Automatic annotation (TrEMBL):
Residue ranges with Basic and acidic residues bias: 371-381
Gene source species: Streptomyces dengpaensis
InterPro entries according to UniProt: Prenyltrans, Terpenoid_cyclase/PrenylTrfase
Ranges where the Prenyltransferase alpha-alpha toroid domain occurs: 58-164
CDD domains assigned: ISOPREN_C2_like
Protein name as catalogued: Prenyltransferase alpha-alpha toroid domain-containing protein
Keywords: Membrane, Repeat, Signal, Transmembrane, Transmembrane helix
Stretches that traverse the bilayer: 388-406
Chain spans, region Disordered: 358-381
Superkingdom of origin: Bacteria
Pfam families assigned to the protein according to its UniProt record, in alphabetical order: Prenyltrans
Signal peptide: 1-26
C-alpha cells in the first residue's frame, strides 16, 4: 500500500477516520464552509464541498439524466467551471476564476466522474475530451490509475476511469500504456478462485504483493471489467447463478463473473454488505451494498439483486437523507439498474429527494414540483458527499494504517 501525501487528501483522511456511522455524530460536529464562504447556488448539497464537490455534483447530474430529468443549467455550469486548463478536475475550487496551479489537488476520480456526467448530458464534448486526454496522460505503465497522478493503480480508480473512457466513446481496451490496458491492471488485482477470497478484486496489493478481498473494490472491479460506468446498466440475458471459474488471466468478462460470484456469496450472509472500518465491522455499509446491486445487475444477475435491493428499500432512508445528493444518486443507480422505479422506492421518490438537494431542474424535464426543491433543506447535510470516500478512503486510509474503508462513501458512514 502507499500513503497519499497531498495535504488535501490527508485532511480528508482525518475526516473519514473520525467517522463511522451517521447516527453516531451530532449535526454540529460536521465540517462546514466558513461563514464568509457562501456555497455556489448551482452546487448540489449544502455540506462542506472541499473533498467531494465535483464528485457529488457529477453523480447528481448523472442520476438526474438517467431518470430523464434535465438538470438546471447553473448546476451543469458549476461543474464545467471547476475544470482546470489541463483538463483535470479537483474535488472543489472555491474560486473557479483562479487558474489551477501545482497546489491544486486534481485527481483521477473526480475527473472521471465529471466526464461520465458531461458525456451523458451531451453538448460538452470539448470539456469531456480534454478531461479524457488528461486521464490518459497520467495512466500508469501497468495500464491502470491511482487516485492521484502517479499513485499506484487501484481497482476503484481504474474502474471509474474505464467508465469515463466508455462514456466518452473510447474503447478502454485500446487505451494502453506500456502495452498494458486498464483491463490488464484490473486482472492483476483479481484473486484466483482457489485462493482466500477467490473471485474478489483487491483494492491494491499489500506491501508483500498479496491480494486481499475487498467488497468495495470488487463492486467497482466488476463494473469496470465489463467496461461500464457508474450507472451500470443491466446486462441481458439475465444470469441465474454465478460461479468462480479459473481463467487464464486475460479475460475481463470472466473476472467480472467471478467478482459477481464473490459478491453473491458475501451478500448471502446478511443480504447487505458490512463496513470494514475498524470498530464498525458489524455496521451496514449502505453505499457499498448499493454499488454491489449495480455490479450484479451489470453482470446480468438481476435475480441476485432482489434481496439486497429490498434491504436498501427498507433500511437506507436515513442514510440517504444524511448522505445527501451522492447517496440519493447511488440509490437511483441501484434501482435503475434493476429495472425498478426510483420514483417509488419503498414509498420514497428518490428523484424528488435528489432534486431537493440542489437547484430546481429545468422545467422542461423536471420531475420536481415548483417549490419542492428546497423542501428537504431541514435535513442534516453533515454527511454530504457520500460517494467521494469510495475513492479517497479505501487505499488511502489503508496505506496510512487506519484500515480499509470500503464504500459507504460518506464522511460519517463508511467507505
Amino acid at each position: 500500500m502507499f500513503v497519499r501525501r497531498s495535504a488535501a487528501v490527508l485532511a480528508a483522511t482525518a475526516v473519514i477516520s473520525a467517522a463511522v456511522m451517521p447516527t453516531a455524530f451530532a449535526a454540529d460536529e460536521s465540517p462546514s464552509p466558513s461563514a464568509s464562504q457562501a456555497l455556489p447556488s448551482g452546487l448540489f448539497g449544502s455540506g462542506d464541498p472541499t473533498y467531494d464537490g465535483v464528485w457529488r455534483q457529477s453523480l447528481a447530474l448523472l442520476a438526474q439524466d438517467t431518470v430523464g430529468v434535465k438538470p438546471a443549467a447553473k448546476a451543469v455550469d458549476w461543474l464545467t467551471g471547476q475544470q482546470c486548463a489541463n483538463g483535470a478536475f479537483a474535488p472543489y475550487r472555491a474560486d473557479a476564476t483562479a487558474q489551477c496551479d501545482a497546489k491544486t489537488m486534481v485527481d483521477t476520480n473526480n475527473t472521471a466522474a465529471a466526464v461520465q456526467a458531461l458525456a451523458a448530458l451531451g453538448g460538452h464534448d470539448a470539456q469531456a475530451d480534454k478531461a479524457v486526454a488528461w486521464l490518459k496522460s497520467v495512466q500508469n505503465k501497468d495500464g491502470g490509475w491511482g487516485y492521484t497522478a502517479g499513485g499506484p493503480s487501484d481497482a476503484n480508480s481504474t474502474s471509474v476511469v474505464i467508465g469515463a473512457l466508455t462514456a466518452a466513446g473510447e474503447k478502454p481496451s485500446e487505451a494502453a500504456k506500456g502495452g498494458k490496458s486498464p483491463y490488464d491492471a484490473l486482472l492483476e488485482l483479481a484473486i484466483p478462485c482457489d485462493a482466500d477470497g477467490g473471485g474478489a478484486f483487491a483494492f491494491q496489493p499489500d506491501k508483500k504483493g498479496k491480494l486481499a478481498a475487498n467488497a468495495d473494490a470488487t463492486a467497482a472491479g466488476v463494473v469496470g471489467a465489463l467496461g461500464k460506468g457508474l450507472v451500470g446498466e443491466a446486462k441481458q440475458p439475465a444470469v441465474d447463478t454465478f460461479s468462480c471459474k479459473t481463467a487464464d488471466g486475460t479475460d475481463p468478462e470472466r473476472a467480472a463473473q467471478n467478482g459477481a460470484a464473490y459478491l453473491v456469496e458475501v451478500l448471502a450472509k446478511d443480504t447487505y454488505l458490512k463496513s470494514a472500518l475498524a470498530g464498525a465491522e458489524d455496521q451496514p455499509d449502505y453505499g457499498n451494498t448499493a454499488d454491489a446491486v449495480v455490479a450484479l445487475a451489470a453482470a446480468g444477475g438481476t435475480k441476485a439483486t432482489k434481496e439486497p435491493l429490498a434491504w436498501l428499500e427498507k433500511n437506507a432512508g436515513t442514510w440517504a437523507e444524511q448522505g445527501g445528493p451522492a447517496a440519493y444518486a447511488q440509490l437511483i443507480f441501484a434501482v435503475h439498474a434493476t429495472g425498478a422505479d426510483p420514483r417509488d422506492f419503498g414509498g420514497t421518490d428518490l428523484v424528488q429527494r435528489l432534486g431537493a438537494t440542489g437547484p430546481a431542474a429545468d422545467a422542461s424535464g423536471s420531475s420536481v414540483a415548483p417549490g419542492d426543491e428546497k423542501k428537504d433543506e431541514k435535513k442534516t447535510d453533515d454527511t454530504e458527499g457520500v460517494s467521494v470516500w469510495w475513492i479517497i478512503g479505501v487505499g488511502l486510509v489503508a496505506g496510512i494504517g487506519i484500515g480499509f474503508l470500503i464504500s459507504g462513501r460518506n464522511k460519517k458512514q463508511q467507505l
